[in-house]
């Protein structure tokens, strides 16, 4: 199975064009797996970390599933301890802060 992130959301010189897919242009078919990231949903943003609108993502996931595709979802959430990006590793206190009793536990569970 071959997959592609945000396959039908955007590509080379296009965005949100129904039926469009760079993979399909090259191979003649959509990828079997389409990945989606919900990073920034915890901030109540309208779009994810790749600038894909959550409202559009939902529709694209349904379309992919209807074609027989597999959707995967990842969540690169903000660092709840530092408010940095998902890739902020400036502190070794993050896990300790989000588990029960930690000073960021409530914030983290609200995001969930």
Automatic annotation (TrEMBL):
Is Hydrolase found in the keyword set?
yes
Alphabetized PROSITE patterns for the sequence: GH26 (PS51764)
Annotated InterPro entries:
GH, GH26_dom
The Gene Ontology terms for molecular function here are:
hydrolase activity, hydrolyzing O-glycosyl compounds
Q: Which Pfam families match?
A: Glyco_hydro_26 (PF02156)
Q: Which SUPFAM superfamilies match?
A: (Trans)glycosidases (SSF51445)
Q: Which organism is it from?
A: uncultured Flavobacterium sp
Q: Which family does it belong to?
A: Belongs to the glycosyl hydrolase 26 family.
Keyword annotations for this protein, in alphabetical order, are: Glycosidase, Hydrolase
Protein name (database record)? CAZy families GH26 protein
The residues the entry assigns to the signal sequence are none
Location of the GH26 domain = 1-112
């Amino acid at each position: 199975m071959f997959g592609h992130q945000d396959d039908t959301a955007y590509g080379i010189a296009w965005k949100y064009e129904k039926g469009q897919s760079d993979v399909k242009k090259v191979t003649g078919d959509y990828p079997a797996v389409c990945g989606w990231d919900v990073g920034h949903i915890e901030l109540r943003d309208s779009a994810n970390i790749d600038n894909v609108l959550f409202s559009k993502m939902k529709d694209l996931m349904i379309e992919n599933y209807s074609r027989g595709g597999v959707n995967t979802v990842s969540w690169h959430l903000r660092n709840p301890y530092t408010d940095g990006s998902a890739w902020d590793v400036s502190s070794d206190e993050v896990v300790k802060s989000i588990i029960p009793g930690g000073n960021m536990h409530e914030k983290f569970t609200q995001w969930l």
